[in-house]
Specification:
The protein is built from three helices and no strands. The chain is mainly α and 74 residues long.
Length: 74
């Protein structure tokens, strides 16, 4: 896949993993919304919040491993 004006474009290598992690975050957010609506405990909510933050950091780490295109290096 080539971008206009870019001779060395690399396709995202971790796309599937990043998508899975983002879907897991969406699931955690939905669960937290459910906890709020049904009166879940603070501990349940905190546990999901901590796991969500961990998943976000994992996504950032995967994105950081992606190679830069020539345009991004400028």
């Amino acid at each position: 896949m080539m971008l206009p004006g870019c001779s060395n474009y690399t396709i995202m290598q971790h796309r599937d993993i990043i998508t899975q992690k983002l879907e897991a975050i969406e699931g955690r957010i939905a669960r937290m919304e459910s906890l709020i609506s049904r009166g879940g405990t603070v501990d349940e909510y905190k546990a999901d919040l901590i796991k969500s933050k961990e998943l976000i950091q994992e996504v950032k780490d995967y994105i950081g491993r992606e190679p830069f295109t020539e345009v991004e290096k400028m």
